[in-house]
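User: Can you predict the 3D structure for this chain?
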Amino acid sequence: MKPPSRIVDLSKEITNNPADPFFMRVRVKHHRHGRARWLVRLLGLPFRLFPKAFAGWADDTITRMGVHATTHIDAPWHYGPTGPDGEALPTIDEMPLDLMFGAGVVFDMTHKEDGDEITVDDLRRSLSESGANLTAGTIALIRTGRDRYQGMREYWKRGTGMSPAATEWLIDHGVQVMGIDQWGWDLPFHHQIRRSRAERNQELFWAAHLVGRRKPYWHMEQLRGLAELPARGFDVAVFPLRLKGASAAPARVVAFLYED
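Assistant: Here is the predicted structure, written as structure tokens:
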């Protein structure tokens, strides 16, 4: 494997985010260097024996962060406890390592309006225009352009969303890991609720997520920077925190670009 010519970070910063809704809040407390000096003193080292350059170490504590609060990847366990045969669906610590790295393909969905669902035809058209191919192990990235709203109060309410048919189409073409640069994989909640009520249809809410109960797959949400990527010819790495029994985990997602 040749070294990449450029590496693109596709992850949000983890930082205090008061503009986000309460269920997405992150709080990080930063501890200054001087506090550690007192800890070392309490452990028995007199101040007179401290190295002159020792100001103490900095430390930080994440006091609040849900696993879905920032750039993350969902495990099938998030979609429901069991599959169609009653088997337990895998949690995030059970994600196979070989799924965490693969050839990337970007589907340009920036033309889709808020509330307008992404269809199979949309994916086929984008794939035809880019000349990309889907094979086993491909990581599909859905570019909506809604990452421009990250950090704004409206972020979680803006976006298109994957339809269940489009999600299943990717799975049937060998894609087990996929991601999107908006708040969620489906349409924003208020659009799902509006449609469900208007159509009196109990099968609409969270339908693209729920495909994963029948056909387990892993998807990333809240990516950013997909505009910096070509449609094909790059690799993607996604490494979630190894949280035992969790439904998802924050992840550092990066793309590796290569010179022609």
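The mean pLDDT is 97. The radius of gyration is 21 Å.
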